[in-house]
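User: Sequence recovery, please. Input:
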């Protein structure tokens, strides 16, 4: 009888441990999806700011748009780093544990 109780108790402990682990992974995935969306929108905002610097009022196509982390601030604590080497604009957004990057070939926009 004692052995049966110990076996059943071990099985219940194992099942509840596995269920807790799966639930934790689902919660982490939901959080990562939110961070991923914030990171991609931050990266997009970095590209848009670069376009505005180059092609907006007072801008020139030869302007560089190298913005370090913290130069563009967001209310959701996302950050973006934009680098421009003249031919490629690379924008890397970061939020939480997610990093998303966008790259634009500037040779498509002019000579």
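Assistant: Recovered sequence (111 residues):
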């Amino acid at each position: 009888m004692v052995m049966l109780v110990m076996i059943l108790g071990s099985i219940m402990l194992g099942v509840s441990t596995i269920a807790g682990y799966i639930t934790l992974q689902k919660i982490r995935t939901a959080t990562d999806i939110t961070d991923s969306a914030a990171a991609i929108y931050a990266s997009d905002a970095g590209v848009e700011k670069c376009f505005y610097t180059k092609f907006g009022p007072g801008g020139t196509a030869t302007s560089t748009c190298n913005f370090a982390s913290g130069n563009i601030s967001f209310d959701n604590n996302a950050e973006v780093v934009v680098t421009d080497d003249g031919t490629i604009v690379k924008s890397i957004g970061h939020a939480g544990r997610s990093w998303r990057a966008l790259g634009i070939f500037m040779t498509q926009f002019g000579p």
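The chain has a mean pLDDT of 87.
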